[in-house]
Amino acid sequence: MQAKRARWQLLAAATVFLTLAFLAVPTTALADRGNAQPTLSFFSGGHGGHADWLATIDQPPGDTDNQAIRLETTNGAPTYEHGYAGILVHHVTGIPAADFPDSSFWNKTPYPYLFQPYTQGSPRLVVAFQNPAGEFDGYADLRQVVRGNDWEEVSDQTDYPNSAWDVMNTPRGAPCYPFRYSLTWDEVQSCFAGDTTLAVYLPADPYGIYHLIDDVTVNGKTFSSASDNSNGNNDPAGPAATTDPSLLPPLFLLPPL
Description:
With 257 residues, the chain is mainly beta. The chain is built from 2 helices and 13 strands. It has one domain: Jelly Rolls. The protein starts with a helix and ends in a 34-residue tail after the last strand.
């Protein structure tokens, strides 16, 4: 079952990024080695996929700023090339894997959906890595296996093993090649020992599901409201596809298995 889910996750990731091949972001534009505080922006795969800050009192327990991130997707069947939405985190490239802290986020899907209780790996927080030569070396993604319809924290520290990291390594990243499943963050760091971070993003796949996302924690910073995104881009994305390369995750070419 894990292998089936992993293949699906790879297909979903390839669908998102291969459809954006001509919009690849140069690594040099992202590499500041964590010297700047993280910021975020939103992206959309078009066909109604939408991402923005939402004014709402519907928030995780203890959160009182009356804002959350809305990721609204559309059903992209049968190809699933469009209709996704997501969050791109900036200023997180070039940080040694050993120094990059664990990440987490809160998710709510307010209504029952066809897949539930299974998440099909969406939404997921992806951390991609590069080797010392600057070559893409694989990624780890934090996801839930099952969920309900209320706010739930997606964290390998508070919800393991339901929330955990899955890893895809390239042949260059031999320690965990080709896949490892249901890992904690320290195990992920071992899979990418000697590597640095390349990109961080949080996509919701095009299944027509409405998500609320809040308290996204990356590189020690938590995004709970638009005010936490100082000097970042709070502009909504969608319903048309995002075409600004600076607001899109870079293209990752996955090796053959």
